[in-house]
Amino acid sequence: MRDSRFMRVLALLFAVVLGAAVITGCGSTKDDEESGSASSGSTAAETTAADSSATIKKGLNVVVMPKQLGNPYEELEDKGTVAAIEETGGTAKIQGPTDAAASSQVSLLRSITQQKPDAIVLAANDPNAVVPVLKQAQQRGIKVVTQDSDSAPEGRQIFINQATTQSIGEQLAKQALETAGSAGGEVAVLSATANAPNQNAWIKIMQTELKKPEYSKIKLVKVAYGDDDDQKSFQQAQGLLSAYPNLKSIVSPTTVGIAAAARYVSDSKYKGKVAVTGLGTPNQMRKFVKDGTVAQFALWNPEDVGYLGGYAAAALASDVITGKQGESFKAGKLGTKTIGENGEIVLGPPTTFTTDNIDKFDF
Questions:
Q1: What integer pLDDT is reported at residue 35 of this predicted model?
Q2: Is 3's pLDDT higher than 90?
Q3: What is the pLDDT of residues 14-50, one digit of tens each?
Q4: Closest by Cα among 223, 189, 203, 230 to 100
Q5: Whose CA is closest to 80, among 337, 318, 363, 303?
Q6: How confident is the model over 112-164, as pLDDT tens digits?
Q7: What mean pLDDT value characterizes the chain?
Q8: For the structural domain made of 50-162+302-348, what CATH number should be given?
Q9: 78, 120 in Cβ contact below 8 A?
């Protein structure tokens, strides 16, 4: 009898242990495994070696995210990215927020990460806010390329820079000097958002340049933010001229801002008295150059920025490169490109547009 009870107890214990094992096994989902790998800090880039002899894979699925939908500059850039991906035999889908808030971009990136595309090509609205979700994407095997506006380096493998930060900042300072006139005077900056990493980096270099002796006649009185919104930028330009009646020049390192400022000045008492310059596209600025509102502005070809970003993403997703300094890959019509320090690839110096050359460009 005691033996019988003993056997029943053993059977009951065996059933409990077996049930626990089954429950533990069911709790180990794919997401849990990925979460576990995330805590180790490893990424696909750390475990995959580059193969310079490899070719770009066909059928890659790439998501392209601008700072916000409807931005003319971003549309040109994304057009280039899509063209590059399609050239390599892949498909590219543009998904972006309707506003320039970092939180909107982060929310959308979370959703995209769950879809597990081969790569994400992103223009970041904030250098730090996007990092956690971009790291999560990398841990799921998604390659990340930033273009035009970078995240912190740990958020991506490659950054496509239009030109060096130093050269753009120097260009903006030079524009301020040349458009203010020989007597110099007060200048203001009309930027995008207060957290835009590329804008802030350029303005910081510009401010450093303006401290040099050759810029002693220039006084930077204000950095205003139009949030890359046309109407807000228009109002900010109006506000600058109201607050600083002796202003000589508005320098806007954003295509939305420079067009809005030029539109306001062109139809005001300030036309011919206050210069507008900065970074813009020839097609949006042509009429302001020809009516005398804008004497000069500068930019690189945004389609080429996006095109290079698309080829970099395809090369990453095909293990042709991993993002390490010194690695090279073929970028279609742009030729061979080499990765520099901190995963950065520089497209090239900006072009200055004036009445003499603006009709030679169509973008």
A1: 33
A2: no
A3: 443 334 333 333 333 333 333 333 332 334 444 467 7
A4: 230
A5: 303
A6: 999 999 999 999 999 999 999 999 999 999 999 999 999 999 999 999 999 99
A7: 88
A8: 3.40.50.2300
A9: no
Contact (CB, 8 A) for 119 and 317? yes
Of the candidates 94, 246, 119, the residue with the CA atom closest to the CA atom of residue 180:
246
The 3-state DSSP class for residue 136 equals helix
- Report the C-alpha gap between 254 and 76 in whole angstroms: 14
Structure tokens at 156: 């991506």
Give the pairing type, strands 351-353 and 297-299: antiparallel
Question: Cα–Cα distance between 155 and 178 in angstroms, integer?
Answer: 38
50-162+302-348 and 165-299, same CATH topology: yes
Token match 């130093």: residue?
Answer: 166
Phi, psi of 326 (to 5 degrees): 95, -15
83: left (phi over 0), alpha (psi -120 to 50) or beta: alpha
| SS3 call for 220 | strand
First to last CA, the chain: 94
pLDDT band at 262 (very low <50, low <70, confident <90, very high): very high
DSSP structural state of residue 279: B
- Tens digits of per-residue pLDDT, 266-318? 999 999 999 999 999 999 999 999 999 999 999 999 999 999 999 999 999 99
| Closest alpha carbon to 148 in 119, 128, 120, 123 | 123
**Residue 317 and residue 300: Cα distance in Å, rounded?**
26
Domain boundaries, the chain: 50-162+302-348, 165-299
Q: Please tell us whether the domain made up of 165-299 is placed in CATH 3.40.50.150.
A: no
> SS3 of 245, please?
coil
Weakest mean pLDDT among 1-10, 62-71, 260-269: 1-10
> What tokens does 89 get?
């035999």
CA atoms of 334 and 340, how far apart (whole Å): 16
Q: How far apart are CA 248 and CA 253, in angstroms?
A: 17
Choose among 56, 87, 30, 18: nearest CA to 306. 87
